[in-house]
Amino acid sequence: MTAAPGHSRRTVLWWAVLAVAWLAVLVLAPLAGATEVSLSRALGFGVPEGEFNPDAQILFHSRLPRVLFALVAFLVPAAAFAVAAVAVLAIYGMSRWRGPHTPPATFLLAGITLNLL
């Protein structure tokens, strides 16, 4: 495995492990619950055409949307934290290396952005 420029092999491996774990949760978490759900029956194997399929109803209408929401909701705070960190670094950089042409409104907008987060 060749790492991208600027990334170590360890970083690429770490992201690959996280992606595999995320996919494993996406596949296995909907199958866990109080009621046993058969993945093959939920996908329609062994169920006659037109017959009510409770496994599919439980999996696709109850469990899978909850798992997807939980996985996406976990990513949103991480993205918000990253945006907040960039805003703080921008404010620090502007205050530290303020050029003669930096208007005070720039600091005001950066502060408002940080407060909105």
Structure description:
The two termini are 38 Å apart. With 117 residues, this protein is mainly alpha-helical. The longest helix is centred in the middle third of the chain and has 43 residues, at 54-96. 68% of the residues lie in helices and 0% in strands. It is built from 4 helices and no strands. Helix 3 (54-96) runs antiparallel to helix 4.
Give the key terms.
117 residues; mainly alpha
User: Oligomeric status of the shown chains?
Assistant: single chain
Low-confidence stretches: none
- Cα radius of gyration in angstroms: 24 Å
Shape: elongated
Which helices and strands, and how do they pair?
Elements: H1 9-28, H2 39-42, H3 54-96, H4 104-116
Helix pairs in contact: 3-4
Summarize the structure.
With 117 residues, the chain is mostly helical.
